[in-house]
Amino acid sequence: MKIFWLLILVLSSAVAASAQTVGPLLAEGGKGRARGEFVVTNNGVQPMVTTVQAMTFKLSPQGESIFLPLDTNNVVVKLLETSAKIGAKQNHVFAYEVQCMSQQPCLVAMLPRMVTGLHTSEGLQIGIIVPHSIYLCADRAKDCRKRVRLAAGVPAGQ
Amino acid sequence: MNSLKRYAVIAVAFILTLGVVLPADAQAIVSSTASVNLSYVVGESITVTGAPPTLTFSGAPFPATGTMTIVTTWVLAATRTHIDTNLFFATPTAALTDGAGDNIPSSQVFANFNGSAFSACNSNPAPEVTGIATVGGTCNVGFGVAITSANRSGSNSSAFVLQLQGLSPSLPAGTYTGQLSIVAGAN
Description:
The complex is a heterodimer of chains A (158) and B (187). Chain A has helices spanning 2-16, 144-151, and strands at 19-23, 26-29, 33-42, 48-59, 65-69, 75-79, 83-86, 91-100, 106-116, 123-129, 132-136.
């Protein structure tokens, strides 16, 4: 009987446990345009629904990202998909194209929100968000993030 | 003249013989060193483990959830300086709702962190996730870790419990549901 309850406990733990991975966390682009992708991995044993929202962000002098609604006057974001249902132990590639209409660098974040199950009948549904940040420079892509951080007043190494 | 020719033939034959034999006795021929460039890209990633699909409240007088242990694992580049997580409600005025206009605001949802004191989920988010986590709807229980050369790959395990406090006695019976978000970001 004890083994039965232990088995139930182990199985319920397996069902409850979930893990979500997002990578890469950073992309750099040059000439005001970038095509890229990020991967969302469902390490769990239940299907996971992911919805992606694009936001603009700026940097504080301390290097912190301050997220803002997407600046559609200066940035055009094309997401191939804005949502996906990812099966157990599967991953999904979200591809995007970002165009910066400004001569200033454009900073865009893709925010995948990952939930297990579509609805909850009671209590709180838990969602996980891990940002994928895109640094888009008007000139070259190399060291775009580094240059943007310097321009924002972030001390090197911080 | 004939003997001279004979000697010449013998000499040529000897040289030819040497030509055949000598390479076999010569030093080994060593090719120039070929090199192959190796590269292995370790991409940055953040993994959040342990979040249950849902949390339900039970008990009295302060209904509480079970313990939610969130493990955040990261692999970050040398240029990163900080990683933070926050828990938040997108709509602070209606953290939970019955769908009929009766709401439980985030100020009545309390959270604790690794057994510490409970605090209301009506704080402002950490700077790293400002704009994602909601102003006035964030639980003051996230963790923040400075990234150094010692922990560019690392993990953090944090245990959270949510509790309802100060519910209005006039709150009608019903099933209240909501969405809690956990955001993990690195700078």
